[in-house]
UniProtKB/TrEMBL annotation:
Record keywords: Cell membrane, Cytoplasm, GTP-binding, Hydrolase, Membrane, Nucleotide-binding, Receptor
Gene for this chain: ftsY
Taxonomic path: Bacteria, Pseudomonadati, Pseudomonadota, Alphaproteobacteria, Maricaulales
Keyword flag Membrane: yes
Top-level EC class as recorded in UniProt: hydrolase
Protein name listed in UniProt: Signal recognition particle receptor FtsY
Signal peptide extent: none
Locations listed in the record: Cell inner membrane; Cell membrane; Cytoplasm
Amino acid sequence: MAEKKKRGFLSKLGFKSKDEKLALEAAERAAQQQQIDAQMAARMAAINAAALASAREQDTGSSDVSDAEKAAIEAEEKRQAEIQAARDVERAKQLAEEKSRREAEEAAAKAADDRRLADEARLAEARAAREAEETARQAVEAKARAEDAARLEAARQAEIDRAASEAEAAELKRKAEEEAAERARLEMERLAEDARLAEERRLAEEAAVAARAEEARQTAQIERLAREAEEAERRAARAADRKAREQAEEAERERLAEERRAQRIAAGLSPEPEPEPDVTAEGGFLDRISKGLRRSTSRMSDQMAASFNQRTLDREALEDLEDILIMADLGSDVAEQVSSNLAEDKFDKQVTDLEIKVALAETISDILTPLETPFVLGLARPQVILFVGVNGSGKTTTLGKIAKRFGDQGQRVLICAADTFRAAAVEQLTVWGERAGAPVMSGKPGADAASLVFDAMNRARDEKYDILMIDTAGRLQNRTELMDELAKIIRVIEKTDSSAPHHSVLVLDATVGQNALSQVEAFRETANVSGLIMTKLDGTAKGGVLVALSEKYKLPIHFIGIGEAIEDLEIFSAPVFAAALSGVADAVTPTANPQTD
Ligand SMILES: Nc1nc2c(ncn2[C@@H]2O[C@H](COP(=O)(O)OP(=O)(O)OP(=O)(O)O)[C@@H](O)[C@H]2O)c(=O)[nH]1
């Protein structure tokens, strides 16, 4: 098609196709041939006319026709001959032209035919090519469709297979889970049954222990009541003695005073003033504790004296008071209690620092009195006493001081140096043990403390010691692995004697101030602390922390340490501690000699 278009366009421009050129050439050649033929026909006509004239000459040679006629005839004949010849030439020419035109037309028709045939052939060829192309394309499409269909079929089959295998796997999993759940349920039932039986056993054991404990408590109570009755009797006797002595002394004093008055009157002098009564003796209990707590007391006393010299107790004064108490480590709860107790009676009134100290002493005493708990040994033997606390809180020293007291009371004491980390602790205990007359069991440095405690428990039981005192290594409350070791020691003790340890004493260093609260928190949980001893109250201004932690944790308090010497461990007395810490003792004790630091 494109070829055909191209040719039509070329012929319009005057270009001839190859066939047209051939046809034109053939027509030219035919025209030339016709010319040649016409020339030949003219020459033949001239020859014929000459031959006709000579024949006539011969026929007429002897006739009488004039020469002019003869010439006219001859000229006429010649003209006729020439006309004829020209007609012949013209005719021949026309024929030749007619022929060459026909041939040209035929050639053109043929060329057009050829072109048409060629175009048709080309069109047929193109159609065939297109059809072949179409067939091939259809074949490719058909193949692709077939492949797609095969692929889809394969995918569908694969999906069916996958779903089937998933369903099978899910079914297997479900069955396995069912079986596992059933096994777990049976195991839970078994464990629950075991636990129930164990609980029954435990309850039975607890009931037995409780019955024994109750029996022991009742016995102890009877003994205590008996002791108390004896003591009351002794006290009553002593009081009666003292009263009689005091009455006698008073009578003597009055007699002497009367005598002196009489002598002075007789001598014309005025009577002498009455002497102040001696409230506390120098070196007595209150005096010792007041001196021990001097650092804690003096700063607070000075601040109160400076702030409350005849001051009106308004809101600002109460806030100042709370600040002073909080700075003395008594804690905000205690500070609020003191200020609200004081405000009840004295708000908007003039107060002195002594009135404030008395209110403080009363509040402290109210908080501490329920916790004032003497260190009483139970009936079980050996009595196991465990000492716990952070490093350097004074465990070893305190244990030694108490061991000495027990030794003095005639108790047989065994000491276990379960502080296997610090070699010096063993030496320290050995010295204390010697003073108390108590053997000291120790292990190699770094040995397992729990196994040493196990051995000590067995030895104390086998050798019938009254008391086993166990000194443990100091450990910071945030060191989990050390707290775990302490828990292990306690488990070993409990395993050997389910009622032990009978006392689990937390030794606290007063100099750490508020940090003591977090120590109580941690040891209370791990060591099931039964009571407290606070040491180093002599070396700090933070003694108020004992009140703060008692208010919060309400743990029994057995002793307080007010120095390193053996006699510097005092049985805890709430009113005495309150009087000493508040500074009231200084105000009423003439022997007191406050020294500020
Ligand atoms: N001022 C004063 N010092 C005390 C008191 N109690 C103990 N100390 C001293 O505190 C220091 C530490 O006492 P230790 O008994 O070794 O303390 P610890 O808790 O056994 O120490 P670790 O075994 O390291 O945990 C020693 O120098 C004691 O003399 C006390 O009440 N007042």
